[in-house]
Amino acid sequence: MLRFDLKTNLILVLLFIFIVLFAINNSLCFKVPPYGFKNGYSSLPINKKFCIYDDAINVDFIIDNNGARVFKEINQNKNLKIFGDSQVLGLDINLEKNHFLKKIFPNYNLKLFAAPNNGPYEVLKSIELNTEVDEFIIINFNSSTDIHRINEYWNFKNQVTISNKHAGFLTNFPVIFDFITFINFYSKSKKPKLLNNYHMQDIFLNYENEEIIKNLNLYFGSLRSLLKTKNLNFEFFFTHPYWIYDRRGQKLSINVKVYEKYNKLVQILNQEYPFIRFSNVDISDIDIDNLTFDKRHLRSNQFLFD
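Above: the chain's sequence. Below: its structure in token form.
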């Protein structure tokens, strides 16, 4: 009888622990959006709903059957497909009206084909597979990371290590997905380069503008070829990097060397590629709260365009 009671009590305790963990898990949000590889590019898991942490709120995500983030409020008859990485996902916004591109294209519903570690060449693959002939699309180039992802050393497969199907399964287990992401990040031999602003600034300052231009020329050649093949019309947005600022207590202040080099790069690109729309850099001190929860993305309201 005693043995039976111990066994029963153990089962009840384990059942209680499971119920508590299940309840906690279902109340949790992700630290970064779940994502996985799909047909050569990074995508959010299809047909899923989840939330991610922000400093003051939880941000809800709705993902359609193509892996694009969509919003609850559908007020227009036309959809606008937007391609890029996590910067254009709107990691800090619940309402479509607060996305910087909605302010430029108010008469469209936004469909965000974007995900973490989705580099410029991965974006081309996504455009190829997720557009129809003669469509009008938006491409967002996140200079925080994409200027490095056009370099020959970028290896998409090393960064996106689980499939979209597995990422979809893990949307049910935020703690497990965040743990896998943490292990993958800290197991990389080059991890120190991504840990803070100073490392990112050093990489940029040692990355000659001539080399960046050469790599961009190759990328734009591939982009033109794809656009021509599908007869796509497009606008190209170039968002400034979060590491253009130094962190000083609770403020972000422009790093003069980084800003001057970045500004020279923008001037060169303006001459060679006049179709690029560059975000305006706020050179005054801004609050550190203008970075999202992970401190590696600028908030959507920081991107204004002429």
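The mean pLDDT is 88.
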